[in-house]
Design a protein that fits this description.
The chain is of the alpha+beta class and 134 residues long. 31% of the residues lie in helices and 18% in strands.
């Protein structure tokens, strides 16, 4: 569970991101990378090396290995925590749809871009669908 620290929130972000890929294989590869990084973040939390709101000062060997495995080298210390947030991820053909109530999503953007996506983002509070009609 994430504990909110902030000035108060009237409602959630209801953010939707769509990564548009050349083909379904690239989309699946991006989702697999996110799954690998999410598992690594969960392992970091379980090992006591990652606490909500306190980014690690160094990447563990295990986390570095996970980032190398998926060829993602642009994550910063504060990005890793984002993989622990509640997020729904679906693959729809050559698109990866990421939905979350969080505003801190740069880790997901970095993965989608690194895997070759054109990324579209919008608030579900203000828009029914994005440019791609999703």
């Amino acid at each position: 569970m994430k504990v909110w620290h902030g000035y108060g929130t009237e409602h959630s972000m209801n953010l939707k991101m769509i990564g548009h890929f050349v083909d379904a294989d690239e989309a699946r590869e991006a989702v697999e990378a996110i799954a690998t990084l999410t598992a690594a973040a969960e392992a970091e939390r379980s090992a006591g090396r990652l606490e909500y709101g306190e980014p690690p000062r160094l990447f563990s060997e295990e986390l570095l290995a996970a980032m190398s495995e998926v060829s993602i080298h642009s994550l910063g210390y504060a990005d890793v925590e984002q993989f622990l947030y509640d997020t729904e991820i679906d693959v729809k053909g050559s698109r990866v749809v990421v939905q979350t109530d969080e505003i801190d999503v740069i880790a997901y953007i970095k993965v989608l871009l690194a895997k070759g996506a054109k990324v579209e983002m919008y608030s579900g509070h203000d828009h029914d669908t994005g440019v791609g009609g999703q």
